[in-house]
Amino acid sequence: MENEYKKSYRGFVLFFICYLSVMIGGAIASAYFLSEHATRIVINILCVGMALLTYIIYKCDKIYWYNGIEFEDAEKAGKERRDAYAKAHLKLFCIFAACMLAFSVIMALLSVSPWVDFAVGAVGICTVAICTVKIKL
Predict the structure, then answer these.
(1) What are the phi and psi torsion angles at 17 (to 5°)?
(2) 69/14 Cα distance (integer angstroms)
(3) Alpha helix ranges (H) inside the chain
(4) What is the distance between the terminal CA atoms of the chain, rounded to a whole angstrom?
(5) 133 vs 86: CA distance, rounded Å
(6) CA 128, 130, 136, 137 torsion: positive or negative?
(7) Among 2, 14, 66, 105, which is most buried by a count of CB atoms within 10 Å?
(8) In the predicted model, what is the mean pLDDT of the chain?
(9) CA contacts within 13 A on the Cβ side of 109
(10) Smallest Cα–Cα separation from 15: which of 69, 52, 62?
C-alpha cells in the first residue's frame, strides 16, 4: 500500500530563498574576486541550481512543482510513474549543467568572452526546459 501523498510547497519556497541567496552572493563575490569571470560563474550557478531543483523534486517526490502538473494528477499517477517523470527531467538538467560547466572551463582557458558562456547557458537552459515538454506523466 502506497504512503499518503501530501501536497506542500515549503521545500520549493526554501529552495528558492537559498537559491536566490547563493545567486546574489555568487554574483557579488565573483564580481569582487573574479570580475573577469563573474558572468561565467553566475550562469553556472543558474544551471547547477536548476539541476539541483530537479534532483530535489525527484528525491522528495514533488513533481507537481513542475508547471502543468496538478497535485491530483501526480497523486493518481502513482509513485513509479512520478519517479520516471522526475528522473527524465533530472537527467536532462544534470547533463546540461555538467556540459555547461565543462564548456565554461574550456572557454575560460581559451580566454573567450564570458558573454559567450552567458549566451550558450541562457539558450541552453531554455532549450532544456522546452525539451521537457515532451516528457509525459
Answers:
(1) -65, -45
(2) 20
(3) 10-33, 38-60, 71-77, 79-109, 114-131
(4) 21
(5) 12
(6) positive
(7) 66
(8) 94
(9) 6
(10) 52
